[in-house]
Fold 6-methylsalicylic acid synthase.
Amino acid sequence: MVATEGPGQSSLADAGPVAVIGVGCRFAGGAASPASYWEMLRAGRDGIGLLPERRWQPYADLGGDFAAALRRATRWGGFLPDIEGFDAEFFGLSPREAELMDPQQRLLLEVAWEALEHAGIPPHSLAASDAGVFVGVGSDDYGRRLLEHLPTIEAWTGIGSAMCAVANRISYALDLRGPSLAVDTACSASLVALHLACQSVRTGESPVALAAGVNLVVSPGLTLTLDAAGATAPDGRCKSFDSSADGYGRGEGAGVLVLKRLGDARRDGDRVLATILGSAVNQDGRTNGIMAPNAQAQRHVLARACAQAGVDPRSVDYVEAHGTGTRLGDPLEAAALSAVYGAGREPGRPCLIGSVKSNIGHLEAGAGVAGVIKAVLALGHGEIPPTLHHTTGNPAIDWDDAGLRVVTEPTAWPRTDHPRRAGVSAFGYGGTVAHLVLEEAPPPARSEPAPTGATAAGLLFPLSAASEAALREQAGDLAAWLSDPAVGGTLADVGHTLALRRSHLGRRAAVVAADREELVTRLRHVADGRPGEGTVSGVVPPGPGRGVVWVFSGHGSQWTGMGRELLASEPAFATVVDTLAPVFTREIGFSPRSVLAEGDLVEVDRIQTMIFVLQVGLAAVWNSYGVTPDAVIGHSVGEIAAAVVSGALTLEEGGVLICRRSRLLRRVAGQGAMALVGLGFDEVTRRLSGRADVVAAIASSPVSTVVAGDPAAVEEVMGRWAAEDVDVRRVASDVAFHSPHMDPLLAELAEAASGLSPASPRIPMYSTSMPQSCATPFVDGAYWAANLRNPVRLAAAVLAAAEDGHRTFVEISSHPVVAHSVKETLADPHGDAFVGTSLRRNQPERATLLANAGALYCRGVALDWATLQPAGGLAALPTVAWQRRPLWRDTRPRGAGPGLCHDVDSHTLLGTEVPVGGHGMRLWRTLLDGSCRPYPGSHTINGVEIVPAAVLINTLLRAAADGGAGPVLRDVSLRVPLTDEHREVQVSCADGVLRLASQAQDQDQDHGTERPWLVHTSALVPASPAAPPPSPPPDGRKTTAEDPAAVARHLASVGVPTMAFDWTVEELRRGPRGLRARVRAERPGHPAGTWAPMLDAALSVAPVADPVPALRMVAGVREVRIVGEPPETAVIDVVVSDAGPDLVDVSISDGHGAVLATLAGLRYAGMPDVTTDSVAPQHLVHGTVWRKLELAEADGQPYRREVVLVAADARAADDWRERLSAAGAPVRVVPDPAALARLVPAPGAWTDVLLLPAVSDDPPAEAATRATWLLASVAQHLAGGPPAQAPRLWCLTTGVRDGRTGAGLALAPLWGLGRVLRSELPQLWGGTLDVPCGDDAPADLVLRLFGAAPAEDVVSVRDGGFEVARITAVDGAPTRAPFTCRADGTYLVTGGLGALGLEVARWLVERGARRLVLTGRRALPPRATWDDPADDGRRAQIRVVRDLEALGVTVHSVALDIGDAERAVALLDTDALGLPPIRGVVHAAGVLDNRMLADVDEESVRTVLRPKVAGAWTLHELFPPGTLDFLVFFSSCGQLLGLPGQSTYGPANVFLDALAAFRQATDGDVTLSLGWTSWRSKGMSVNEVVDLELRARGVGAISVREAFDAWDWAYRHGAGQCTVLRVLPVEPGMDRPVVLAETVAGVGAADPAEAGPAEVVDLSGLTPEELRSRLLAEVTERIVAETGLSGEALDPRRSLSEQGLDSVMTIVVRRSLESRFGHVLPATLLWHQPTVTAIADHLTELLTAGDGERDVASAVS
């Protein structure tokens, strides 16, 4: 390699040094600012630690080979703890876009902002400037992941992942127009970027430049590469130039330097931290390997940099070396340093060297800037911090002759005859090397010392942030900083920095403080969100309007002493007062200064003139503060000051006018009065019409007016209107302005003003003196006469200004007079307007004015901070309080596929964690087969490979621990053996329950064949594990030695010949109650040790405690507790329970008495049968069959009850009356439900009431609604009396079972209502009698049914007999192919944005749908708002739709009331939607309004029936039978089971069932109505009431997957209407409806929510008094729990409905009492026993009667 050393000095050096004026950094070890970085360096600490735990988890989830590779990867380094968090809102980024940004972009945005604040450059001040950005970056880990996840790529993915955007994003965010480039030269990148930035600054290309470097370790790929190359240190620590150097530790972080030319920095008053004298970059060319370093190239770049800097290398005192700590690199670098910097040194004065990599790791692309910042800080502090981990110099370096020494302790900078200088090196592994020469900052220019405190009145301190939370946090940070006694800087420095060196953001606060203590106190008020004196806060509006309007108020603002403080403290004010002095002396005979300083304000002439003086003086002060008006308004006398400010009059002309006007007013002083009334101007004018003694004078606001006139007249009006509750207040004026009292003065006033020379206003002036609020009035003499006489139209002027776009108003006065009126005027039309004030009576004037200036600042009004903060310099205040939140796109790298894998070396089946929406559930998925068994050996039982119980338990332990220590499992159940056939395995954790389940994955299996999920293992995770495990049994037990090989022989003898893990029993001893074994488990050949081998040993040893050989499988463990790491050798103690040999307690200790694990209550069983928690669809899908009902034979006795017919159809009533009478029944007839109340005698226990509903001519949907309300109304009229006296209510329907007529369809809902009435009113409800179309039931048959009163909800008359409905499983061979959707069709889901609708949408897509229309009451919001949804519900909807769209599905959401047929036709027009025809419809719309019958009204009936009934009929007409591939109705099994509270919902669902049958009467139609049980955690029935009622009837919920499997099953079997429910095994207390009599409990255990019945309380032995007292307490406890009332607030004798217990709550309470006391209670319990006392009395009677029956039974037996 040919090179020349020391080429000539570049011409760029002529531009002078480059100044470093600001620094920002974020490095490991908490070095988040220059100050904290320096503190860490000086203290000799490092930031080396373990990689954040979940950083590389997506890669570990790719499979066992990936996980194994990651275990080999070095995990030690200098890492940042939170790279996921980012304050997106601060930079105006949506969370969605921020997620798509490389976190290096996000990190640099924050650090760049901090660096600019550190430099004292407001970041926003650089907008549109040529400021440049130069960034060294070498990693795009995150971006690669985004680009490799093809399904989620979107428009922002490209720029979010681009390396160029690391620089470009800063330029974009700050609107910088200079060069913006990313540099990648590997480990020299940021130093090369700094080199380029210096060139740009020197040439003038960039007046300011940001030079930066960044590095984040997002993916493990490069780490594995470096590990393979031997470049990384196992402990992650760089041992620079040390004999123990073994590689470097990777580091993360970012650093930013702010640069200017030194001359520019001095001109601008910037603080200079250091200067850059010169730099050089070159390449080492061709070496013996592209990554091999080259000492000659390094020497060359060092020499070139010194030549560029114009310095002798011997004048450089310290070099911040590259110093990675590699065996090859350190000696080569030392040789280069020695050749350039070590040569020619004086003895004992070596060049000092060091490397910050020993503190924070090697930041690779960011390493150079990290070293420069260290050097800059060291130059500034005059001290060199130590290099860590250096004890003995590398022997390959000739330290004696090198002229170098590593700094190993804090060292004062050597004193020399030249300025302090430092060099910084950075070398890229591709061969690009860079070096930089720094020099200490020149001494700052001398300046006058800033005052140490504020003025007596205080200073105004602004704070701003991007959010309220950030503002409060920043205020707290600043208060803490000011409270630190070690912090320097004056209050003036603080104010200067906040006001002039920071950008002012949208969320603001301002604090007035006179000293440090007051500032701290008031900042803490801001931090706490507490308003307080001297503090204001607010939000800059997005559209602040056209500018500020100054409102000059009139008479009434004056107070003695006003202006005195301003005369002394505000030069602008004093100048105005003194300018007016000659005019006042000439025109009115007194000086304004003397009146303000000493005089009283009593006479009107002094009051009015001083109001003017104060106003124009305040205007001058506001102008000096930088606040200028964009328009003005004057109120009465205030118009004179407004005219002056607008430019219509000069200040002197205004003084003349006010003096002459005030002189005239002396004549009328004391003759008038004024009052403010709370009425509008027009109303006051109307009331005072025709009067001249009192008139409406001022239109203050739309709701307030000032009246003026004779004192007596004003007094009379005030008294009269006050009596009418009108708000009235006297105004402090004895002059009746703007009334006839002014008439004598008008001519003279016009004449007095005629000598003025008014001009057109330069600033718009909204007149209040003229009928129209002209913005440019000509203020001549006539105008000023009108000003004195005409009503003041303040409200109109304010509204006119607001209509012109003004939104900020400031009252210019010595006390607020009109501010309230202005606010009232703007309140309704312009509620966003701001109304500020100036001074306040008897309050410190400057402090008040500053606070009001602060309020304007918070509104977004610009202030002249150079005036408000006139002194001080830059202070290192706390920077932005970032409001970070995790924003991370968790995509899988290329090749991830479904990500179904696990780490076999972890000895668990814990696979990839997948996100699960809602309820805090966690889910892990993996695939298992013989190639990825998570254990090294083989575990066959009778020839079948079975996953060991130890692996299953270890899996749940790992899931429970989730990175923590000491996991505990309780109630571990091992139900089904898990084989290693090809299966998907899922581990779930929800509500403290862990489950491990699997599903076969046979690829050849027919898609229609059921693939059940098997739950193999489950356990509970306690919220707070209790005490530590017990000590092991004492060593002194009497035991005998046995052959350690006995364990292996035992296992082999029962069919377990091989071991899953490599463990050995070294010693085995048997005692009277168990075993003790010393076991050695071989450690794996990788670092991760797990508990599985030792658990396997314990579970294998324990069965040997029973000397009788038998195959025993682990069935359960009461508690598994782990408290330590697994030992290599352990003592296993097995203690057999008294309950038998299959129950033992096991402890595992380390041999020294320390118990590390326990398995308490370990239970064994024989090989179990395979069962499943998932129910097959053939056990869920039920059809309706009709069975004969056998009634008891008539005993020959006549019918002895009466019949009351309720019939609006007189013909039908007469027909039934005649027939029933002929059959021997007395009959009465009423036309409607209300007539029942007029019957005498009233119907009673001897009465059968038969409703004969007539079907109207309305469409079936409306007819169904009317019929439902008719039956409900009849039931309500009959249900009011005592249950024992209740009549029996029956209902007659025609043709419902046939399902072929519109009339039958309209009456179908009555079946559902009747079933609910059976539950709610069992004493009242008789049943529904259905007869075929065209047939009728013989009267004697009807009376026979009435007499028998069977407990059947619906009885069908057929062939002279009765039939009743039962449901049975739908089985047999399928008649259709599996359910599918066409890719070329559109599919409509009503209620499609509900929980069930979205699940349906997903499933339809699974079945082939590619175009969906989802309707709901509200459509999705505009797509532009999707990244910031209004609530969690909307967020979930959007997430599902986006997921579907990512699969290529077109999704339209339509806001549609499906019951509105006309809108449905219009909105579901597929041509208009641009979609193909609708091929299938799922009607899932519905409204749930559960009420007990007593609370039902006609509106609630219509509300619930409309979406289901009217909606279904709309769909029926829109899509006639046979026109769709399918129409599926979502019905409910609740009506079949008679769930209380569903007296509207139940009828609606029966209509769907009937309509499905009605449509299926047409050949070729495929309509299916599915009567669902509740879906777990889904749908409208997600509530405790429904679950309780279902369970009480022996019915359980189903999972989403079970639901869709059932749907497919029903579809394939050609059903028209099916009931889908899970029948539970019979338990005590269940009241299973008779309709379920022929069902069979589905296979599978119950959910946790469906656990067995609670333990019944034992009340035996209590006396009646004790029993009643106990029951009173029990009832109270349950009602308190449900209502949320306190026990003290619950009145036991007051109606519970009056205390907030609604009809739905009654069900929960009733079911709770049933479970507690073991008795079925009537649904009407809380109707007829409506108080706590009554319920307790009822229960006492019930339980006492039960005891009596048991006593009798005992006596008989």
User: Anything to note?
Assistant: The mean pLDDT is 87. The longest strand covers residues 1155-1165. The radius of gyration is 45 Å. DSSP finds 54 helices and 61 strands in the chain.
